[in-house]
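hiii, so i know i said id send this last week but things got crazy w the move. better late than never?? heres the sequnce for the chain we talked about at the cafe, plus the structure i predicted for it. fair warning i was half asleep when i ran it
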Amino acid sequence: MRYDDILHLPHHVSSTRPPMPLADRAAQFSPFAALTGYDAVLAEAARLTDAWVEPGEEDVERLNDCLRILCEHLREKPEVRVTFFQPDSRKEGGAYLTRSGRLKRVDEARRCLVLDSGETIPLSFLTDLSGPLLERYPPRF
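okay and structure toks below
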């Protein structure tokens, strides 16, 4: 055979250099990622978003009536459940979210609802309002 002369020699251990740690030795055989960040780009492209559906005229009238009722009873800090669309900052579309809490105020200058938790919900993306007060005083539309 071609290696018979060295096959059974003892393993060489350097007297001048320390042995390489096992973690570093294993790292030299790990796969090479030529395209760093490519997996993140693929995951972002695969992430699903919903499309914004513009509310119809009747929906807008109903929401306006709900807002009027809530504004009339704002001192009571009514419990409200708000569904709204939140646009995605990275790609087209977004997500429909629902938040619950007590309505603190309707900020007409910033055109948003402010809940007692401090969260603000833009009126332009409002899709539904509900709550005990709106069940007692149902909107006309």
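btw Helices lie at 22-27, 38-46, 57-72, 132-136. thought thatd interest u
miss u guys!!
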